[in-house]
Write a structure and sequence with these properties.
By secondary structure, the chain is of the alpha+beta class. It has one domain: K homology (KH) domain (GMP Synthetase, Chain A, domain 3, 2-Layer Sandwich). It has 4 helices and 3 strands, in the order αββααβα. It has helices spanning about 5-15, 45-50, 55-70, 110-115, and strands spanning about 25-30, 35-40, 75-80. The chain has a 3-stranded mixed sheet with strand order 1-2-3. α1 runs antiparallel to α3. The N and C termini lie far apart (about 70 Å). Mean pLDDT is about 80; it is low at about 85-95.
C-alpha cells in the first residue's frame, strides 16, 4: 500500500484544521492490519471529530475504502491532545454516559410559597 493511507489521512486532516503544522500521523503495520494514530492541536479536535463524531466516522469509512483497494485493513486512532478537556470537572464529565439527575419537582403550592419568600 506504500503509505497511501497515511498520505490520504494527512491530506484530509490538514484540510480541516487551523494548525496543519501540528498534525502528526504514526503508521504501524501488524498482523491485524494498519493502525494510523493521529495527534493534533487541542483546538482542532472538534473539527476532526465533528458533531456526534460524524466527521471522524466519515474519515474512518474513507480510510477503510482506501485500505480495501490495497487489500489492507486500516484503522484510525485519534489521540487526546495534552491539555484536552476530556474527563475534566470543568465539563461536568465523570466518565459515565448518564445525564445528571433532574432536580426534585415541587408542587405549585410549594413553588408559590417559595416565591412569597422573596
Amino acid at each position: 500500500m506504500a503509505e497511501r493511507d497515511q498520505d490520504f489521512l494527512e491530506f484530509v486532516v490538514k484540510g480541516l484544521v487551523e494548525f496543519p503544522d501540528e498534525v502528526k500521523i504514526t503508521r504501524v503495520v501488524d498482523e491485524m492490519g494498519v493502525l494510523l494514530t493521529l495527534d493534533l492541536n487541542s483546538e482542532d479536535m472538534g473539527k476532526v471529530i465533528g458533531r456526534s463524531g460524524n466527521t471522524a466516522k466519515a474519515i474512518r469509512t474513507l480510510l477503510r475504502v482506501v485500505g480495501m483497494k490495497h487489500n489492507a485493513r486500516v484503522n484510525l486512532k485519534i489521540n487526546e491532545p495534552a491539555g484536552g478537556l476530556k474527563g475534566t470537572a470543568a465539563q461536568g464529565w465523570d466518565g459515565s454516559h448518564e445525564a445528571p439527575a433532574a432536580p426534585a419537582m415541587k408542587s405549585v403550592d410549594e413553588a408559590m410559597e417559595d416565591l412569597g419568600n422573596f
